[in-house]
Here is the input.
Amino acid sequence: MRDLTIRRLTIFVAAVLLLGWGLGASKETTKIGIVDLDQAVSSTTEGKAARVEFERKQREAEQSMQPLIERYTAMAKEFEAQQFVLSDDARFQKQLDLQELRSEIEHKQKQLQAQLELARERLMGPLGTKLVEIVESMGREDGFSFIMRRNSPGLIYTREALDITDRVIEKFNEKG
Here is the structure.
């Protein structure tokens, strides 16, 4: 993972240097843009609707877990109250029942988390693709030398004047 990050950073720095050298050789001015795609996705009309839908799915997932959690809580309280009066075999059996239910809860949580990740990708993935297309189009139309994604590796500082996120959101909402 670390090697991949270092490799990406090296490629990024090399690309910036080559781009800068190539642009310098052609005597053109360099126009740089910064875009926060995460903010853009969550700020567009479609992005807001997708977020509402995703939050609904999250609530449904939480509600589906509630009966299991309540059952586990009740069993744990019952065990705690009775553990000193139970025989060794009965205590052992109750502990196994609690462990089994805890495992069932953990399994269901992992399953729901995977389903939520898929739902997020289904809802947000197409928006991200559309936004990238809009950024590329704006880059060509507005004569940007390059547009970088905010919060990406290699980007340490940007002037706010370079940020084109609001313009990307406007264009996205215009195209619908």
